[in-house]
């Protein structure tokens, strides 16, 4: 029987079978799901979030008596799977462990609850070659060969069109370590966020501003889970698996509204640096100083502290929604001219 994968299932399949989510090599079973929730481990290695295969009720009803499936994405065969095992988990436990005590109000938990009536684990009996990959996608094994001569390679994660604080971070990392991987997450689905093609186009433009053959821009083919510290550590694992030596964790990395405190993701990842297996860069967020007329992350005086303007993706997206001009101190014209209201998901 054929089973049509959705985008999330397909991107997760790509990531578990190509080493991007290593040590995960397949979708988790019930025991692995619970072990990750309670202990943040998989096969005795640190792993923060279960990569699961969820089913809606109708999907479950259609396949509950099947022994084998052919997974398909956009009419193309992806894999043949066997030894199907259906299971349930405590969804409230998942919500509390990932999003905190207020989890029932979290946007992604509501989606998680709606999309996952049952869960499925299986054996992958046959893999087909990938037919639908995003433009510029590179397998970690191929990318590692490309960067093998570099002593250090820091990585920067984003789900935004780059603003001036991002450009400041790019320059800092490239100057400090001699290289840089800018790896935007594509797979946005929430209204008001940027569309994938604008995220990639603008970040490629930003990578070229550094004029260096040791600066790379690749997509991270996934989707936002808005899981704060746990998701931030997953992002760090992805960059470790791509061969990076360092990873920049942001002020509100993978955050959503006020579910996580400022710098919580930084502190969590820094405390687990050895277990994650990559150096974590945790610095104060950059801002625009109206006195010095530059982007920086350090105030030289109390007066400077009062004159700073915080730079954020949400601030710029709100300007776009209102069809207002983006000030050059927030985003350079080379980037802002690439976007408009049609750049956002409606």
Secondary-structure map:
Elements: E1 2-4, H1 7-17, H2 30-39, E2 41-42, E3 45-46, E4 54-55, H3 57-63, E5 68-73, E6 76-87, H4 91-99, H5 107-115, E7 118-127, H6 140-146, E8 154-158, H7 164-177, E9 180-186, H8 196-209, E10 215-217, E11 220-221, H9 228-241, E12 246-248, H10 264-271, H11 273-276, E13 279-281, E14 287-289, E15 294-296, H12 302-306, E16 308-310, H13 313-321, H14 333-336
Parallel strand pairs: 1-5, 8-9, 8-12, 9-10, 9-11, 12-13
Antiparallel strand pairs: 2-3, 4-7, 5-6, 6-7, 14-15, 14-16
**Global morphology:** globular
Major sheet characteristics: 6 strands, parallel
- Can you tell me the CATH topology of the largest domain? Rossmann fold
CATH architecture of the largest domain: 3-Layer(aba) Sandwich
- Counting DSSP H or I runs of 4 or more residues, the number of helices is 14
Distance between the termini: 35 Å
CATH superfamily of the largest domain: HUPs
Q: What low-confidence regions span 5 or more consecutive residues with pLDDT below 50?
A: none
Count of DSSP strands: 16
Please estimate the helix content. Answer: 25-40%
Q: Structural class given helices, strands, pairing? A: alpha/beta
- Average predicted local confidence, pLDDT: 95
The count of domains is: 2
